[in-house]
Amino acid sequence: WETGTQWDLSATWKNHGSRSDVSATLTYFGRSSDNLIEFVMINPRYGKYFNIGKADINGIELETLARINKWDIHLSATWMDAKNKTDDYRKDAPLPNRPEYEALLRISRNFLKDDAASAFVELHYTGENYYDYTGAIKMDNYMTTGIGLKYSFSKHTKLVLGVNDLFNESPDVKMFTVLNGPSRTMWYPMQGRTFYASVIWDF
């Protein structure tokens, strides 16, 4: 079975003003695993949970939040170095489904009485992501856009409506071999534009 040791170290800065609040958190994290289990595509028809072996994952995450009047700006960015450390031909190969770069920017604005409603737009970027466990097949970098609306009926009940991947970019993401292969459609294209509705009830 999979075993591992993980840790993180964080530092947070906050500033409270008369019309704005700003905070930022910087985190350094890591995990060393034995018998790491990952879901890996073997061919166009077959995928399975695979015992990767030894793995080291280290990274840095920055998260910031600024509240200015009725505007909220949230930015998070992650750099992750995820490598296979098994002592064979896979040593130092990048782990699958562990992108080296991820970033999220969300901007929202409150409105109506007591800020009962808010609308938001967000951008999500993913880069340097591998499809297989040997580091031979890579995915395109891509960015998606989301929009949404939240409305609070009370302190305990909230309605959320939104659209992920507004411009339907994800299904167009392609894969390619790192050395010399041409781009081709992924064996299982990613989910594209998605509409969602949620009711959140806190009690």
Describe this protein's structure:
With 203 residues, the chain is mostly beta strands. 0% of the residues lie in helices and 67% in strands. The chain contains no helices and 13 strands. The protein has strands at residues 3-16, 20-43, 46-68, 71-84, 101-111, 117-127, 129-130, 137-139, 142-152, 157-164, 174-177, 184-185, 194-201. A hairpin with a 3-residue loop joins β1 (3-16) and β2 (20-43). It is globular and about 60 Å long. The model has no long low-confidence stretch (mean pLDDT 92).
Provide the gyration radius in Å: 20 Å
Strand fraction: over 45%
Strands side by side in the biggest sheet: 1-2-3-4-5-6-9-10-13
Q: Main sheet, how many strands, which sense, barrel?
A: 9 strands, antiparallel
User: What is the H/E order?
Assistant: EEEEEEEEEEEEE
Global structural class: mainly beta
Tally of helical segments: 0
The amount of helix comes to under 10%
Overall mean pLDDT stands at 92
* N-end to C-end Cα span: 38 Å
**Overall 3D form:** globular
Give the tally of β-strands: 13
Q: Give unreliable regions as ranges.
A: none
